[in-house]
Amino acid sequence: MTDLVRLVAFQGVPGAYSDLACRAFFPGVATLPCATFEDALAAVRDGEADRAMIPIENSLAGRVADVHHLMPKSGLHIVGEHFQRVNHQLLAPKGARLGTIKRVRSHVQALGQCRGFLRANGLEAVVDIDTAGSAKFVAQQGDITEAAIASALCADLYGLAIVQPDIEDAKHNTTRMLILSRVADVPDAAEGPCITTFVFRVRSVPAALYKALGGFATNGINLTKLESYMVGGNFVAAQFYADAEGHVDERSMRLALEELRFFSREVKVLGVYPANPFRQTGMADLGE
């Protein structure tokens, strides 16, 4: 996959955790910061970038807002997944120490994930738009009373010192990222475990969801994720997002999807891609 990738789009500014994920999954490949998720997806759709790295869920904060709505309409295909460990660093201008710092800036989720550390050290939390943007602001101000919570990459990019490393309260903080492309890159079913991601809407009849998902149970398909969300402001019909272990070329998956389509108004496969090894090696650390 990486031999054809020259530029990867992400939402945020340089040094964001999504930027870190791009560099981890595509080492040596240039990254393209985008203001919004829509911009990152559009960069791939319009040929400006080869891939987009988009967060889908976090082990502490849950699903990432808006992404479920955007992906089905993007015209892109999911071609991979990456699990990015989130290590929060306390960053400040060189010369600052923990004793000189009074205020700490970051995204609201990052501040919440470091609440214990901030409280224990009597530091004022200041909510900012994002983690990397906070680091950039602190670097520009050069005030040793101001600090930011961000990635180690931000320390390198903006010339900041890591005053205190790994200050997150929960040591299993991990974000699952999806890699999207203009062209589907479906692996051979014999190459190893795969994930099939799809969205669907069931008919508005009793037990429709139960019947729609019955085919996965009878065919031995494990659903690792199932979430509902509203579409079009309608409180009646929900759309569902699902991840299933398996490949669309396998008979069991074909039969399960056929049954799903019979009981659903719409089914759309968003991607078939290799299951990341983290599912086997790292899930235990998340309490699986």
CATH architecture of the largest domain: 3-Layer(aba) Sandwich
Helix share bin: 25-40%
Number of helices: 10
Distance between the termini: 29 Å
How many domain modules? 3
> What ranges have pLDDT less than 50 throughout 5 or more consecutive residues?
none
Q: Looking at CATH, which topology of the largest domain would you report?
A: D-Maltodextrin-Binding Protein, domain 2
Written description of the protein model:
- The structure is a single chain.
- The chain is elongated.
- It has ten helices and 15 strands.
- It folds into three domains: 2-85 and 173-181, D-Maltodextrin-Binding Protein, domain 2 (3-Layer(aba) Sandwich), CATH 3.40.190.10; 89-164, D-Maltodextrin-Binding Protein, domain 2; 189-281, Alpha-Beta Plaits (2-Layer Sandwich), CATH 3.30.70.260.
- Helix 2 packs parallel to helix 3 and helix 8 runs antiparallel to helix 9.
- It starts with 6 loop residues before the first strand and ends in a 7-residue tail after the last helix.
- The chain is α/β, with parallel strands linked by helices.
- The strands form three sheets. Strands 1, 2, 3, 4, 5 and 11 form a six-stranded mixed sheet that branches. A five-stranded mixed sheet has the order 8-7-9-6-10. A four-stranded antiparallel sheet has the order 13-14-12-15, sandwiched between helices.
The gist of it:
This protein is α/β, with parallel strands linked by helices and 288 residues long. Helices cover 29% and strands 33% of the residues.
Can you lay out the helices and strands and say which pair or pack?
Elements: E1 7-11, H1 17-25, E2 30-34, H2 37-45, E3 51-58, E4 62-63, H3 67-74, E5 77-85, E6 89-92, E7 103-106, H4 108-113, H5 115-120, E8 124-127, H6 131-141, E9 146-150, H7 152-158, E10 161-164, E11 174-181, E12 194-202, H8 208-218, E13 223-230, E14 238-245, H9 251-262, E15 264-274, H10 278-281
Helix pairs in contact: 2-3, 8-9
